[in-house]
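input
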Amino acid sequence: MKLPSAVVAAGVTTMVLLTAYLATAAPDLTFWDASELTAAAHTLGIPHPPGTPLWVLLGRVAVLAFQSVNPARAVTLLSVLAAALTGGVGAWMASRWIGARGAVVSAVIAGTFYTVWNNATETEVYAVSLLASVLLLCVGERAGRGDIDEPQRARLRGLMAFIVGLAVPLHLSMLVALPAAVAFAWRGPRPNARQVVGWGMLALLGFSTVAVLPLMAAQGPALNSGNPITFDALLAVLRREQYEVPGLWPRNAPLWLQLGNVLQWADWQVAFGIEPRPVPSWPRTALTLLFVWVGLLGLRALWKHEARVGRAMLLLVLSASFGVALWLNMRLGPTFGGSLVPANALHEARERDYFFALGFWAWGMLAGAGLTAVSATLARRLPPPIAVVPYFAAVIPLVVNRTLVDRTHEPAASLPRVYARLLLDAVPERGVLLAGGDNDTFPLWYLQQVEGVREDVTVVTVPLLGAEWYRARLVREGLLAEQAVVRWPGLAGALRSVMIHAELARRPVRVSTLLGRHERVELDGAVGWALEGLVYAPSRALAARSTGLDLSAMRESRDRTPPSALTTLPVGADPALGTAQELLRCNTIERLADPLLVSWCGGF
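output
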């Protein structure tokens, strides 16, 4: 039996992208949220707000399905599979507009754009969210076709409502696709009140997945962010009250600069591997502009094919790029702004291009449609072998971006694990480690909760001390007084309380080098602090508040550090990897005047 061309296009695209993603996916831990999410998937824990319970359940399924690989890789395969299926669904949808060949080209381009590919090769929510977004678009596109009857259209719109309801338990980023999905589905008579009520009920059914959060919290997992055991706590997690969520006004940066930041990330998509630096470059940016041009040709071709499709795709690109920038009101990225903003302007901790993955994916689909239109024009004038030449442009992002998104090479492949293990081993038995953020916390949590490494160490994450649920957890662990839960003592008071309770329990305290002298002094200003490599230890042999070097401990730290962890990183690697390497070099300091002590190792 001959398969429909749309099914063939979907299958070919899925296999091409699956092969590319499997060859470049992280074999182990990565920095930022990945390690926390991996731990949540293995333990049915609750990661940082909004908790993403549906993703955690899917991650748990991946753990059970891929038991033959290491625990971290198993959850990464969920992203790999979701991203490959996204391409397949996109090709299936586009085959009706531009034929099977053009659909494969479009979906492969979209799937190998830098941000989409990067999200596909590590444990994160964004690959699964992108799949849900494209499913929503696909259902909406089918619901708006003229060749289906009204009962079938009604069922498809009900399915759209259910998928929309899944946004809260999965990730709100998938709602970015909703305006375009509605534009796709806009056909036929206006919905009546009964239909609208039905859609609302189906959306609530999807939303009801959040009910697993209190059930998970009731099991008392080690990873229990927000502890959503009560309705108020659940609401606080879903609303992300732990964070300062900006409104639309005032802007965290001038709007024109925020939009410019989106354009910077857009310039990375087609051929970032040619010149993987933040600023534009002639060869890379020229290819970006070429793909913008063919994307516009694709938009025109789709509009001519069917105005409904053209309008929806234009709305998708605009809402998933500039619309997201307007709504999120983010600070500028760490590499954007330069002299255009004050020197003391706040920037994001990392590049946030992943928020715009759907917009970049849509651009890739339009670029493929544009190449198809060019090929069709040439076919009317030239022999077929020449007419297919434009399609070869599809391999540009596949070939050029591969080396940049490849997470399989050392030291990137093992550095997060090495850093986390060395940091845990730098803490004495039953010790308390004060950590400065995601990258000296989440990989350690993974090692402790999933692999049972150094469970005797308590990691106290300083930025989380402002959260009431986290202080309650530290009270249960005997590191804070109960009154500190309901009455915030301030950061200095909380740190001092942790130090006092640790000393009373005869638990040694160490401080990550990601924290500075200010936090160490607030812990205990009556002692000095000696650098031992990756951590500082309190020392009464030093003058109060001073910084010293424990050369013997640093020598031991150097002996434990594998040389492979310090090999040169490729240009364009995640800056967190470079930071980890600099911190690993802290054990090479031999004098207080060493610039490394000040620049990276939190000395003064």
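quick obs: Strands lie at 432-435, 458-461, 509-512, 528-531, 535-539, 547-549.
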